[in-house]
Amino acid sequence: MKEVKTLAHTISDECINCGACDDSCPVNAISEAGNKRTIAADTCIDCGACVDTCPVSAISA
Fold first, then answer.
1. 3-state secondary structure at position 23
2. Regarding the domain delimited by 10-60, which CATH topology (the fold level of the hierarchy) does it fall under?
3. Which of 15, 24, 31, 51 could share a disulfide with 58, CB 3.0–4.6 Å?
């Protein structure tokens, strides 16, 4: 049976696509997707580093 990883952190529609969170992610799990950023669930290590770097508080656990 394949294990399904749930995403601990999400980026809301409040994201202004500034990219501030990109450099804070130690595993490069954040990328641009259309007009906002997205977090890859299978890459994210749930460290929370991105949460404090978002200037509009669009990232939450």
1. helix
2. Alpha-Beta Plaits (3.30.70)
3. 15
Distance CA 7, CA 56 (A): 20
Could you give phi then psi for residue 52, rounded to 5 degrees? -75, -20
Distance between CA 12 and CA 6 in Å, rounded?
16
At residue 48, what is the residue type? G
Tell me the pLDDT tens digit for each residue of 15-51.
999 999 999 999 999 999 999 999 998 999 999 999 9
Q: At residue 24, what is the residue type? A: S
Q: Residue 50 in contact with residue 56, Cβ under 8 Å?
A: no
Tokens linked to 57: 């508080």
